[in-house]
Amino acid sequence: MNRQAQAVVLLLLGGAVVRASLTDLYLRYVKESLQPFLVAAGLALVAVAVMTLWYELRPLLPASVQPPDGEPAGPVAHADAGHAHHEPRIGWLLLLPVLGLLLVAPPALGSYAVSQAGATVPSGGLSDYPALPAGDPAKITVLDYASRALFDAGESIGDRRVQLTGFIATGGAGEPILARMVLSCCAADGRPVKLGLTGEVPVGLPQDTWIEVIGRYTDRIGRDPVNDAEIPYLDVETWREVPVPRQQYD
């Protein structure tokens, strides 16, 4: 692969990054706060590719746009310029991930990732959890509920009803659980937060179905068969299917 081809690949890659960054597609890979950095990186790749193409193609331009006399018109010709240099064709395989990013949008991490990774609940180092949001039910995240249930023993929840949104996954015994993926930076470090369900447990739903549940705290604790971590439970009162949210990660 010569430098011109490399520049084309770089241009496609930069364009794909910019395209993903200016739509909701980037949210499948990184946290929302990283969007400005992705846009900047994509534009930088495009700029480098354009400059490389200009440098490589200048000798082929008409004389009217050639550099003034005394300035180099491009790469210095070698004495053996008449001999073809064959570049390794395997370099063209670099186009595959670029085309994949342009043409195929992989889904966000879901139930399969939940089944392969052990549950995690970052405590955030809180000793006293703030009061739940106003309203009945109180709208909180799956991560917030799990953290309060495990590290605060539900004290900050009390007997209030809470509303959570997550997707259906399968627990160790084949039962449906509520899950949400948590990112520190990007999808590569995504870890699942898992909640066991009691009461009006959703049944008959395919994995990765997004639902909204309303329920109350229960002190029941399970164990994750993947890493033996504690899994808190939620006593479900009602639930309903909801569309896939724009931001699928906590």
UniProtKB/TrEMBL annotation:
Superkingdom of the source species: Bacteria
Name of the molecule in the record: TIGR03943 family protein
Keyword tRNA-binding: no
Keyword tags: Membrane, Transmembrane, Transmembrane helix
Name of a matching Pfam family: DUF1980_C
InterPro entries listed in its UniProt record: DUF1980, DUF1980_C
Residue intervals passing through the bilayer: 36-55, 92-114
Domain DUF1980: 159-249
UniProt xrefs under NCBIfam families: TIGR03943 family putative permease subunit (TIGR03943)
